[in-house]
Amino acid sequence: MTFALPSGGPALRTASLIGAPTDIGASDRGASMGPEALRVAGIHAALTQRGLDVVDCGNVSGPPNPGLIKVNGYRNLAQVTAWNHEVHDAVYRELTEHRLPILLGGDHSLSIGSISAVARHCRREGRPLRVLWLDAHADFNTRELSPTGSLHGMPVSCLCGFGPRELLEIGGVSPAISPRWVRQVGIRSVDTGERRFVHEQDLDVFDMRSIDELGVRRVMELALHDMDEDTHLHVSFDVDCLDPEIAPGVGPRWPAVSPIAKRNCAWR
C-alpha cells in the first residue's frame, strides 16, 4: 500500500482509494486479493473516522499473470510494465486534482508506477520529495543480482535508474528519484549482492537492528529529520515489515536476519 502525504499549503481532505489487484511482479501468487481484502476489512470507514473524505476509484486493470520464467533477467516484464503505466496514470490524475491517492496493492513492483507519478508531480510543483519505505526487504535488486528475476524485488533500484528502460521511463524522467530521497525502515531480509549495492548507492537504511538498538521513535526522527514544511512525503508500506505474529501471512522470518544499516548512525 502506498500513499503520498504532501506537506505545506492547504491540507488535503479527500483521499482516493485505487485498487491494483495483481501479483504480476511477485514470485508467489495471492497478492492480487489485497485490494478487496482491505476494502472488506473497512479501510474506507477507518479513513473516514480520521477526518478524510474518501472516494473509492475502483481498480485499475492490466494483463493477467502468465507465470513466465526469467527472460533476460526479468519475469513478466511486459506485463509488469503495463500494470505500472496504469498505476502511474491513476495516481498522477488524483494528485493533479489535489487528492491524496492511496494505492491498494497488489505487489510491491507497482510502486514503480506510483512513485514515478509522485516524482512527476513534485517536479511540476517544484517541491522536494522524500520516500519512506517500510518493508522487510530493500527491494534494490537488479537482474544481475536477483536470484529469481521477480520485479517485486527491484522497484527501488528501478526508480533510482537501475533497471529495464521500459520501467525507467514511466514517469518521463530517468531516474525518477535519487537514492538520497529514500529512507528505508524495518529491513531484515536482503540478498548478499543487493546488500553491497545498497551500500554503494548510499541508501539510508534503518534495519531491525537499528530499531532494536534505538527504538522506533528515534529511528523515525532520524528518517524524517531533514523534511521541511514544503516536503512531499510518500509512504510505501509493505505488510511484511510487521512481526509475523501480527501479520502471519508475511514471508521473512523474525527477527533480523540480514542487518545492513550503516553503523555509528552516520545518517545524512
How would you describe what is shown here?
This protein is an alpha/beta fold and 268 residues long. It has 9 helices and 8 strands. Strands 3-2-4-1-8-5-6-7 form an 8-stranded mixed sheet, sandwiched between helices. The model is unreliable at 7-11 and 262-268 (pLDDT under 50).
Give the secondary structure arrangement, pairings included.
Elements: E1 2-6, E2 14-20, H1 34-40, H2 43-48, E3 53-59, H3 77-96, E4 100-105, H4 111-125, E5 129-134, H5 155-159, H6 165-168, E6 182-187, H7 192-200, E7 204-207, H8 208-214, H9 216-223, E8 232-237
Parallel strand pairs: 2-3, 2-4, 5-6, 5-8, 6-7
Antiparallel strand pairs: 1-4, 1-8
Total strands: the figure is 8
Distance between the termini: 27 Å
Number of helical stretches of at least 4 residues: 9
What low-confidence regions span 5 or more consecutive residues with pLDDT below 50? 7-11, 262-268
Q: Which descriptor suits the 3D outline?
A: globular
Report strand %.
Answer: 15-25%
Q: What is the N-to-C order of secondary-structure elements (H for helix, E for strand)?
A: EEHHEHEHEHHEHEHHE
- The pLDDT mean sits at 90
Helix content estimate: 25-40%
Structural class: alpha/beta
Largest beta-sheet characterization: 8 strands, mixed
Can you list the strand order of the major beta sheet? 3-2-4-1-8-5-6-7
Rg, alpha carbons: 17 Å
